[in-house]
Amino acid sequence: MRDRDSVLTKPKPNPNRPSRSKKPRSWWEKRWRYCYYRLLRLRDHPHTIARGLAAGVFAGCFPFFGLQTLLGVLFATLVRGNKFVAVAGTWISNPLTYVPIFAFNFHVGQLLLRSYDLSIDDIGDWQSLDLMELGSQFIWTLLVGCSVVGTGCAIASYFLSLHLFKRLHKIRSQRRDRHHW
Fold first, then answer.
1. How far is Cα 153 from Cα 60, in angstroms, rounded to an integer?
2. What integer is the mean pLDDT of 14-41?
3. Predicted structure pTM score
4. What pLDDT, in 10s, does the model give residues 111-143?
5. CA–CA separation, 86 and 129 (whole Å)
6. Which stretch of 49-53, 69-73, 96-100 has the lowest confidence by average pLDDT?
7. 164: exposed, middle or buried (Cβ count in 10 Å: 0-12, 13-18, 19+)
8. Deepest in the core among 26, 73, 81, 112, taking most CB within 10 A?
9. Residue 128: how many CA atoms within 13 Å on its side-chain side?
10. Contact 51, 80 (CB under 8 A)
11. How do the residues of the chain divide into helix, strand and coil, expressed in percent and rounded to 5?
């Protein structure tokens, strides 16, 4: 058994253990950590969180750069979902993923509309893509594909996130109940 003085004193640091880095965090790293912990600590109902994520994922499938976040918040408001999670859901479309996403959406639109006279290979540079220059047929094909793919992704993200957040909610309530005893 330990004596009383050893319990009250602070433990001595281990000289073999490396100290934590005191490197200052960048603005982006701080912001990312804040968003990450805010997502983990959401107190909303799991259905509300799942609806918000589905709204954000749906908006993220459209090629409206700069407006996806606003559309995600608007859709989340319409379906009574969590707006913060909707903003995070729009991040599926980012500079690393938007070329494959929109190429896939265009091909889905082509299959549905049976419009094979347009080719995605005719687009030279996706970075400077101006949808108005491509014509209404191209835009219509892309938007139909985005709508169908966005709906499918939104439904899948709703059910997956609903399951995940229900489990997380259950774990939190069990942990809270365990600490109250």
1. 10
2. 72
3. 0.70
4. 998 877 766 665 555 455 555 566 778 889 889
5. 25
6. 96-100
7. middle
8. 81
9. 2
10. yes
11. 70, 0, 30
Q: How far apart are the first and last CA of the chain?
A: 26
DSSP state of 28: H
Rounded CA separation 50/53 (Å): 5
Q: Look up residue 44 and give its DSSP letter.
A: S
What amino acid occupies position 172?
A: R
* Residues 87-107: tens digit of each pLDDT: 989 988 888 888 898 889 999
Measure CA 22 to chain center. 30
Considering only CA atoms, give the Rg of the chain.
24
- Phi, psi (degrees; rounded to nearest 5) at 11: -65, 145
Both structure tokens of 166: 């229900």
Domain edges within the chain: 44-120+132-180
pLDDT at position 5 is 54
Give start and end residues of each alpha helix (H) in 19-135: 27-40, 46-60, 68-78, 83-89, 98-113, 131-134
CB atoms within 10 A of CB 112: 13
- What is the length of the chain? 181
